[in-house]
Amino acid sequence: LKAQFLQEINQYMSKGIVDISLEDIISTQIAISRAGEEIYRSTSEIYDRDKAINTLSQSLKTTEDELSFENKQMLFQISRIFIRPNLIYDKERTIRRQQDAISRVPIVDGKVLKNEKIVDANTRVTPQIYRKLYSLNVAESKRNQNAFGRAYFMGFFGDLLIMGLLYTIFFLFIYHFRKEIYSDRKNIFLIVINQLIVLGLGYLISSLNQAAFMAVPVTLLAMIVSIFYDERVAIFSTVPIILMLSYIFGNPFHFT
Q1: pLDDT-flagged residues of the chain (< 70)
Q2: What is the DSSP letter of 252?
Q3: Which of 192, 205, 216, 206 is nearest to 251 (CA)?
Q4: What pLDDT sits at residue 4?
Q5: pTM across the whole model
Q6: How far from the centroid of its chain's Cα atoms is residue 127's Cα?
Q7: CA torsion, ordered 72, 75, 80, 82, to nearest 10 deg
Q8: For residues 94 and 87, what is the distance between their CA atoms, to the nearest angstrom?
Q9: CA separation for the pair 166, 240 (Å, rounded)
Q10: Cβ–Cβ < 8 Å for 131, 109
Q11: By the 8 A CB rule, do 110 and 128 touch?
Q12: Are the beta carbons of 182 and 175 closer than 8 angstroms?
């Protein structure tokens, strides 16, 4: 029984028992400092106290040997007393190393000089060029948000003008070519409500992920309008929404 006890204890102590929960360790490896030397070990190879006790309990239940049930119970109770953490978490040292690792990550991925052309016509947009264009768009958006006076008014008025023209084209088409739809408010409400739903979903998706434009159900709007009316109405009701969604997803119209 004594040999069995020592074997069980050495099994867990040799692999290491940390004094914090394994759920609090987000890295896949840990550094263990022993006698001035550091060794790296996978997080899956070590234990915390709860994991060690649970593993010991399962091991004793499934092991078939000459030990009786009472001896196994006694071995488990004694082992619980001696299973203690032998790896001490050094919080200050860990935080310092994390900050050093973060500081080594370059903040600037590339540079764009004044009046430098980012991309030329008929040029393949590489991931690096895309990041530059995206950064330019973010910088212009922040500048427009902080702008006042004529520049702010021109940008805001230009956006409203373009969106108003898009909807005007849609209503002019309905008025001249599909007067039976224009004369019935229920038909107009049906189309406008579906457009607003798609715009609302687009705004919600853009706030979660700017790159998830394909998740917006624009085709669903075209299908619904096409089912109730025809393909021409579906096209003229969908195109303004697509252009508005492009504005929502970070491709604004430029007015200076």
Answers
A1: 1-6, 63-67, 106-110, 138, 140-156, 210-213, 250-256
A2: P
A3: 206
A4: 65
A5: 0.43
A6: 19
A7: -160
A8: 14
A9: 5
A10: yes
A11: yes
A12: yes
- What is the spatial distance between Cα 245 and Cα 250, in angstroms, rounded to a whole number? 9
Instruction: Tell me which long-range contacts 70-73 makes (C-beta under 8 A, separation of at least 24).
Output: 71/1
Which pLDDT score is estimated for 256? 45
Residue 96: count of CB within 10 angstroms of its CB: 11
- Which structure tokens are listed for 125? 């947009």
Tally Cβ neighbours within 10 Å of residue 48: 20
189-212: pLDDT as tens digits: 888 898 888 888 888 887 777 666
Pairwise CA distance, residues 13 & 174, whole Å: 79
The token pair that represents 199 in the structure block: 């715009």
Name residue 32's beta-bridge partners: 39
Question: Which residue is listed with tokens 């050093």?
Answer: 100
Q: What is the pLDDT of residue 66?
A: 65
- The identity of residue 155, as a single letter, is G
Strand residue runs (E) in 14-120: 17-18, 29-34, 37-42, 47-48
Tell me what pLDDT residue 155 has: 65
pLDDT at 255: 47
Residue 34, SS3 per DSSP = strand
Task: Note the pLDDT of residue 237.
Answer: 85
Hey, what long-range contacts does 173-177 have (CB within 8 A, 24 or more apart)?
173/232, 173/233, 173/236, 174/233, 174/236, 177/232
User: What's CA 43's distance to the chain center, in Å?
Assistant: 25
**Polymer length in residues for the chain:** 256
The residue assigned the tokens 């609302």 is: 200
Contacts of 32 by beta carbon, 8 Å cutoff, 6+ apart: 16, 38, 39, 40, 41, 87
- 21-25: list long-range contacts, CB under 8 Å, 24+ apart: 21/48, 21/50, 22/46, 22/47, 22/48, 22/51
